[in-house]
Amino acid sequence: MTEVIVSEVIVSEKRPMKLPIYMDYHATTPMDPRVFAAMKPYFLETFGNAASRNHSFGWEAEEAVEKSRKQIAGLIGATAKEIVFTSGATESNNLALKGVAEMYAEKGNHIITAATEHKAILDTCKRLEKHGVRVTYLPVQQNGLVDLDQLQAAITDKTILISLMYANNEIGVLQPIAEIGKLAKARGVLLHTDATQAVGKVPVNVITDNIDLMSLSGHKMYGPKGVGALYVRRKSPRVQITAQMDGGGHERGMRSGTLNVPGIVGLGEACALCLAEMPAESKRMAFLRDKLRDKLQSELDETYINGTMSHRLPNNLNISFAYVEGESLLMGINDIAVSSGSACTSATLEPSYVLKALGAGDDLAHSSIRFGLGRFNTEAEVDYVAAKVIDVVRKLRELSPLYEMAKEGIDLSKVQWAAH
Amino acid sequence: MAYSDKVIDHYNNPRNVGSMDKSDPNVGTGMVGAPECGDVMKLQVKVNPATGIIEDAKFKTFGCGSAIASSSLATEWLRGKTVDEALAIKNTDIVNELSLPPVKIHCSVLAEDAIKAAIGDYKKKAASQTESVAVGVSSK
Description:
The complex is a heterodimer.
Chain A: H1 2-11, E1 21-22, H2 33-39, H3 41-44, H4 56-76, E2 83-86, H5 89-103, E3 110-114, H6 119-130, E4 134-138, H7 148-154, E5 159-163, H8 177-187, E6 190-194, E7 213-217, E8 228-232, H9 261-299, E9 303-305, E10 316-321, H10 326-332, E11 336-337, E12 339-340, H11 353-357, H12 362-366, E13 368-372, H13 379-398, H14 401-407
Parallel strand pairs in A: 1-11, 3-4, 3-5, 5-6, 6-7
Antiparallel strand pairs in A: 2-8, 7-8, 9-10, 10-13, 12-13
Chain B: H1 5-12, E1 27-34, E2 39-48, E3 53-62, H2 65-78, H3 83-87, H4 91-98, H5 105-138
Antiparallel strand pairs in B: 1-2, 2-3
């Protein structure tokens, strides 16, 4: 009971606003204090190895792990035995794709994915291509969604796996996974989905969505970092994967390594909280997100939402402020933590490949900001963020030769730019 | 990434923001970069034709903080210099003054290019003016 109160205090609108404001929940989330409380005993007291079969320390650890398995399964409509613990979604994605490619090599060697997937999928596919797997990277439509006819057409008799993300980490767009699942099932192809951003935010059900494998991560849903899970379907069909790490044969031989018991307890608790609070929380997220969008769009001209608003995570807003470069905007709003698709903010010095895949043009990718709202954001914070962004965008547009030209009626796409 | 104090100062208080009349024969305009690349600089100089001294310089920049700072600094340096002195400004001078990290060196290169483009534009205008004056004289 006291734990619940701890959390209520944190999300209370009466809490004085503290700077900097964190609004980058797609990158990571803080842990919910209730999750932290649940984990605590498993560091110092109940520290046993869940694989120790001969004493109470091991039994208690195993019991905690099995409770977590049930909590995760409960959130996604699976059974406990279908949950394989991993170190996070990157490992889950690697295990799913490589494990299926290896296990089903005799059946076929073709995988279908999409251009807007996370690097943990795309780079895994690149590696598989070096080992003789053929990969189709579907383009997406301007709204960010894959075209189901294109997907249908890409399936061959060699196709063993479709891997499409549930929700995109940059633009929050939700792929029509239930329809994709139906299609995959009809064609006898396995469906894997990277649901890292979706689980806990929107209802995800592996039965109704016909999902065969699904990756999820603790730190995107108020759980700890360094723990995740892979759902592996056990019935109709019974999915098998080849382990990618050799060792003690933990997790029914699919993933060796001593289990991270405190992390697993935290992941389970995080799932239980998301299940209980999702209806209210997603409504609150959508309200805050829409308020932010409305304020920005009513005060500023030439803003563009990236990706469809109608199939989208309730906590995501990805918006481009034309004629303003993203990194300079971030510099002006330095008491707000958000992300940009601008090249200057990326390690590769390339603008966001997700936004490029929408075909909106590199200039809008350079001008994009991703707002990821979450459990501990308040309405006062949204008001502050909106006001600050509006102020800085106006200031930077005063400085922008492009804005000046656009106001003079010059078509920027027809200008001969001096490339560099 | 951490910005140097000088970059932050130019970002917060950009010097000489604005535009001058492009058609003024004494104004040279340089526009470099491209929106797809994430930075575009417009730099203008106003030259006193009698002395060859840059009396005013203005800029507008679409780009990151370092690009804004590089062009802001450039306008500060340009004012009061002769056209030839201005052409001697090197991107490395800007890098040193603003303590730009290696990934931001292209911002200083762009600023140097903008200076050269603006002065080139002024010189072209000045040359065509002398030409038309000469033509005017000969037709008398």
